[in-house]
Each structure stands twice: as structure tokens, then as C-alpha cells.
Amino acid sequence: MAKRPKGAIIGIGELQPVRYSEGKTTLGLIAESVQLALADAGITKDEIDGLLVGPQVGETPQHVPATVSEYLGISPTMSNTVDLGGATGAGMVWRAAAAIEAGMCETVVCVLANKNEKGQVPRSPNRNPIREFDVPFGASGANTSYALLKREHMEVYGSKQEDFARIAYWSRKNAQKNPKAIFYDKPVELEDILQSPMISDPLRLLEIVMPCAGGAAVIVTSEEKAKQTKNNAVYLKGAGEKITHRAVSQAPTVDQLPFAYSIPHALKQAEIDGKDLDLLSLYDCYTSVVAVQLESIGICKPGEFGDFVRSHTFGHDGDYPLNTHGGQLGFGQADLAGGMSHVIEAVVQLRGEGEERQIPDAKYALVTGNGATLSETTALVLGGEQ
Amino acid sequence: MTNISFPEPTITAVSKPFWDKIAEKQFFLQRCDDCAQWVFYPRAHCPHCFGSNLTWKEASGKGKVKSWSIVHRAGHPAWQERTPYAVGIVELAEGPTLLTHLLIGEQDLSYQLPVEISFQSLNERLLPFFQKKGD
Ligand SMILES: [Zn+2]
After folding, report:
1. Which InterPro entries match (chain A) (predicted)?
2. Which of B89, B127, B129 has the CB atom closest to A248's CB atom?
3. Of the four listed, A66, A181, B67, B131, which is most buried by Cβ atoms within 10 Å?
4. Could you give the domains of chain B?
5. Which residues in A lie closer than 8 A to residue B6 (C-beta atoms)?
């Protein structure tokens, strides 16, 4: 097993998700997010010598790190675009630590943001094999792809609609303690989820994230520098990543999906067990994605998440606090920045700054990211102590 | 039907033989001369052994349903007019999996259902859809 990555998160900044952003640019949202993260860390932009950004397709299709550096007025000694779909946020934190350990830089800003305007056109023409071999048959977009994975889970393991609906239920319930959540003040009952419109059978509307605009940034630095900063730093204790396919048609069978590798790897590096986790901050673009992850953590067996979600509670005072900010299903999915929201919530909880949604004695959090159709998966174990 | 047309395959130099055979109602896949495994979608190199000796060979056009979805909200406006319809992943008898349109009613769909190829015309182009075996 690879050696444990070392690094610490010393600053976080997150914009409140909004359904539509009027008069904003992606670069502007990136700058706002970084400003917040720098203020939180108590450092200036001149201390940043590393930059990781997402692929800002459309507005800045090429030379993204240079464009963002120029816009922010920074001159990093390490910069990269990270393109792991929804796993980009978690993937950045690990890459930042690796770059720091390799001596490329000491303090990295990882930032993701996107605008979302009414009537926004698709970002770029697609010429990949999905466009050639899936789309012409009537399967375009993530909903149908995730529906296919959900169906397979139901058929192979006998999991039920209600099992999946429980995951959306807890996300929305937890969002009621987060005034920044896009579905704050909009609770739902299990029955509402089960009765919501069928989008791509067996996938219903309330099991799917709502696209929105937003931005998020975190600052990762060396463990040495972290000790000198004003906040309680949050440390990277373990990481795992696995990428297996791109198109849902090329996915391995449902028991071999890549989280089955990345999550155990992160736990092993952190030298903890799934049961030692105080917070599950799990990427939840769809309910089925959480189901697969619960089965990969080792807290329930493959195929048995249904029993597990019926016999445990996932709220702030539950035995398995899950997506305490509301997750993407409750808080909002600001495109790639939606993945960073899971990192930020873990930092908030481990620093003990969750206010009315604070969970007791948060020591270890599992943070995950998932891109494409359960294709690109990243898992991090974060801890409040070095 | 409006004048919005169905999205067509974006054919490449490597995949063209596949579509040329489909146009003749034939189903050809690549097979690796080195490791004897079948390959789909078409590639320049074998993803199993990374050899470069792929040969186009006729495949059975038979397989089993690995998963399916009944689409109610299509991702493309032309397909929206056909909703609800079924798409699925078929595991071909030769091994590879592919995504396809299933000409099977919701009540007849089941896991591992045996299916076979059915060439259907869309935008005046033939596409390999699948139907229940023996239908
Ligand atoms: Zn081969």
C-alpha cells in the first residue's frame, strides 16, 4: 500500500448555492470562493504557491490554471486542472498533499465554481464513445445512466425503492438544520420521494440532485505550516482512488464498482475501521451512489444497504451522521463545486463549528467524490488531530 | 414528430467498419488475434492485452439484459416524443457489453432476459436495437 499522504486543510470558503446565477462569471465565482477561504485561513494570496482548478469548459476551455492565476493575481510554482467529474473536489485535496510532499509547493488553493444561467446551452460538443454508442439509442444524460445502475442493484440484490428513498429522506431532513441549503425549509416525507415523478424508471425526481450555481475553495498546506495557522487544522489521514470506466455500458458489475476499492484503501491508510467514522460525508448525486458506498465502507455487506438504512439513523444525533449539511440532494450540487461541499462539511464538523448541526465528538470523517457514472471515485479520511 | 432529428452516431475512422456492416444488417465486432477476446466499442488497440491485432468478425447478435430503464424524461428532445421507451445494457454472448434501445414492453423486461439484435431504421440510418429472443 502506498504511504499515507500528509497535508492539512487550513481554510475553507463556500458560496451559498443558488438555482440560477445572474450577472456572474465562473472566474468571478472562483475569486469569491478563494477570497473566503483565504480569510478563513488567515493568510494572504501571496502565501499561495499551488493552484488546482476544475475544467472550466466553455468560459475558459484551455490554459485554465494560467487564466485563473492571472485573474486571482497569484503566481504558483505548481498548478493543474483536475478533471474527475464529481470526484474533483476530493481528488484535489489528495493531489495537493502529494504536490506538497513532493516539494513542488507548500500551500495549495483548490477551487471549483460554476455559473448556471437560465437557458444555458450545453458546454461543449461531445465526440466521445458515449456520444457515438449510447446517445443514438435514446440514452443521453446522467439520469438514465444512473437509473441503469440502480436497476442492476435492485435486480442483483433485491433492494427496494423505499431503501433508496430513505437516503434522500435523510439528506432533506438534515438540510433543515442548514440555512444555506437550497432545500432549507423544504422538508419531504418518505412518501413524497416515492410518489415524485418518474424520470428514468426506476429513478424518481427526488432521488436526483438539482443543478445550481455556486463555488467552493479549500486551502491545503504542509502539516508544519498548519500548526501556525489560526484555525484548528484538519489533517489528511488516508486516501484512496479508483477509476474503472466512463460509459455506464462499460461499467463493471454492480458489486465491483470502484468505490469497493477506493473507500477501503482510504480507511486502511488511516488505520481505522468503518465503524470508527464519526461522519459520513458521501457524494450523493443520486441515492444509489450512497447505497453503493455504504456497502463499500464495510458497515454493511454488499447488497444489504436496505436493511442497514432501515435499522440506523443518519441525522445529527443519529448513530451514523450522514451528509449533515444536507448532501447534494439537500444542500445543492453546484456542478463540480458540489463535490467540494462534502470536503467543507467534514472540515466544519471536525473543527466543531457546525453550530446547531454540530455532531458530537467528531474525530474522523470519510469524504468521498464520484464522477461520471460511478466511474471516478475518490475517498479521503480526514481527522481533527495530526 | 417535429423537425428535431434524432442524434446520430459520431462515427470515427476506427469505428466506421462497424457502422458499414450495420448498414448491411450485419453485426461485426472486433476480436483480438493475440488474446482471443472480443472488443466493443471499436478501438485501435485491444483493451485486454493492449495488442494491436484486431480483426473484424461476425458476432452472434445474441445476449442477455444486464440492466434496463424506462425513460420518461429523455435527455434529447427528439427522443422525448417517443417516451416512455426502454433502453438497456446488453451483455453480448461474446462478452462485451453495450447500451442499446430495447424493443420490449415494460412488463416483459427482466434481468438476464435473452435478447437478439433487431436492425431498426432511424433518420434513415440502421441501428442495432435488441428485442426479446424469438420475437
Ligand atoms: Zn487482446
Report:
1. Thiolase (IPR002155), Thiolase-like (IPR016039), Thiolase_C_2 (IPR055140)
2. B89
3. B67
4. 10-59 (no CATH), 60-135 (2.40.50)
5. 136
